[in-house]
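Notebook B, p. 112. Complex prediction, attempt 2.
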Amino acid sequence: MSDAPDLHLPATSEPLRVAIRRLRWYREAFARQLEELREDYGLSFTVDDRRLAQIFVDWLREMEVQKPSDPGQRRAYFDFVSALMLRDLLRDMPLKAGPLPQGADPNRAEYFWPEGFACTVFCLNIRAAVLEQEFHAETSLTPDFFNLRQWWSFRENAKADPNAAMGFFDVFTGNNPEWQMPDSFRQRLNRALAAPDRRAGLTG
Amino acid sequence: MPSRLPLPSIDTAPIKDVARSLRFAVEQGGRSLRKGLPLEALPEPAARLADAALTTALRIGDSAGRGAASLAHVLLDGDDTPPTLSHPEEAAAEARFAVAAHDGLRAALMRLGAESCLVSEAAAVAAWRHVTRAAEASDSETAAALYLALTDPSAVREVVWTEGATPPVEAARVATFAVLLAMLADPGEYQALLPAATDLALALAPDLMRADDPASLKTLFEDFRNHV
């Protein structure tokens, strides 16, 4: 994915969409993301492994419940479950950031909200890797991703309602955000059918 | 000259259990002595006498512990890769299962916060015999039956939790589910999968407490075997 912090994913002989649904691989990928953020930005984190496993299980179950039967909806579904992953990570936050490096600029998203930034780039990178592998699709981030006001709004809204994180994820990826019922895949499809280009406003 | 008869295979699990029980008792005794003797509160010469007695007891314990450990070590050599649960007829499947279950339960309990534990390998042998005697079953059904056989009566005999740790509810059940889930996921990667399987099992603990029949357990195994 261009512009976002890198993630060199762990090796796997399986498709990424399968590997990400294995806790061992998911955890390793997450740990690598944190390591890359440490190398690139001097950020440090401690991870609550038990909490991360619980988040993973909740995410699997939610995915299974909302899985579409129509193969034509796979692409939209991958976008949806990536946002859902972020929602669950932010809701039950498994990370605690260590002290910021000396001279860190708090006006940059990674230092303004290190935990949220780490979870977000992880989900963005996983989404980008899966879309590239499954659909040969290139992904990029919108300018909103680099806008601190968006991050301020993102943090406040996600704190008040974790589902709002899914809308911000869509904003960063350039998808039409669903703000009313972001955690319903069915609702997204219905809305896409009704008004494909409608773009709702942000809150906060 | 008549040819020699092959030696009957020896079931080593009970002998290992005895050695491990001895070692566990010695270690526990040492811990209790260290915690229980109020050396600071005793006046002289009682404090000095008690200190000397404790040192002697711990030395004897250490010696017995080393003996038990080396006995266990001598007897524990073997293949610790579990058999595939769909093929209980595999070579040495019973012994391999028992060793893997014993080691796996210990590893899972340690990950859950145990300081030490005592697990019966003979109980794992008994569970395997009991379950694989029944009619042909799928590997998930076998896992469900093994879970029930390993938890009632529990193959986990004793657990000492790290001071200050909050032990998970029904830790033995969580550990047992983790072990069988890792075996189902990939017997060849069993050891490497145990930490993730344990964390998954812990996340599934509320489901596990509700699933007390073979059908529900089988479903739980099937739902998560591909997600370790």
